[in-house]
């Protein structure tokens, strides 16, 4: 290879730039920090292992370096907290912030400006607890009707086996219907454009985040600025969803305000989050202005982000777990058939609670979802764990979910095996959080919508199992799709065949 004299300065500057980045980005650990796992490649660190083989990589790190330990990924030091330490992180809610860490990794505030307001999250949590969880019994019948609407429309008659592809939406439309019913009421939830807006909102936003954080090697904020650049220059793939909801929501809000004024105490308020919002003194209004409409629309989509995408993924995953395990089909079907006869097809919370085998199966599906590490928390001030290790202010702590969900103390010598009745045998419901089950978080900041989500999934599974034989194309358990430490349901599709009545 020939090198001219002119190329020498180029190589020199490349070498200097690379070495400068190395010096700047070289991890600098404080005293008494968790051990840093050694890595081979400067600047890159553990990025390749973490991105391509997170499960095996973190298992090996845990065995060699204990809990917690530090890794260096995409230009940042992360502390990985497993079964022994994660509980301490979740208990120290004043020191570790899930909200700030998530906001940096999932910059939704670029679209929903109200997300930046610290009071928004508190209001969302309060709304879910008071407006949804506390009124769950009032929603049960409506959830069933919406789910059956989806089943009849999208799956329908399967007298001959029908392959339903799941890769594109993971039954998001099935979950979006009852969510829309609860959030915006029965008038709007029948509108297919609104259903589509709810189902596609999170999916369309995550397309922006699909770019690997390569620029984080320079600085995490550089990556965030680049991936959100389209939003700042006017290309907003989810703006259409906001416009759709505002269009259909405005006449409903105006109608309700008018009826309240005319009827006074005789006004019968609908049971939904829109009405809860209108009744909140903080959001009281005499006219539906565009600013007010934007505020309530962004608030509703804040709940959508936290509900539809996650719930639909876990419903889909549970269907795959059921479809690939024929040894449990009859047992779970018989429970659903018995409950269906008891309630004459109209489920109540009492009947949903009696689905103990289905509930236990769902809990196990959630436990074995195979997300390796997730739920980041930002350390707001230097913190020393009870074991004496200290992490500095600004550090992100990742929850090592597999270390929690696959620990031998709780789940026996083969914790990675599927234990469908572990929850039933130990009196653990699918919505219950404990030190060995972090699917919904832990402590006082555990997901407030988990009771609604579990009920929704159980109703969906109940109706589908009652109406169809469901199996995988291979006849076996399909493998989940992994993206670094994250997982998604399989994409092989599910075969539905109508049961003979």
Automatic annotation (TrEMBL):
UniProt main location, coarse: membrane
Protein name, as recorded: Cytochrome P450
Signal peptide: none
Species whose genome carries this gene: Diversispora epigaea
Lineage top rank: taxon: Eukaryota
One Pfam family from the record: p450
Membrane spanning residue stretches: 6-24
One Gene Ontology cellular component annotation held by this UniProt entry: membrane
Binding sites annotated in the UniProt record for heme: 447
GO MF terms, alphabetically ordered: heme binding; iron ion binding; monooxygenase activity; oxidoreductase activity, acting on paired donors, with incorporation or reduction of molecular oxygen
Keywords assigned: Heme, Iron, Membrane, Metal-binding, Monooxygenase, Oxidoreductase, Transmembrane, Transmembrane helix
Homology family: Belongs to the cytochrome P450 family.
Cofactors: heme
Subcellular location as annotated: Membrane
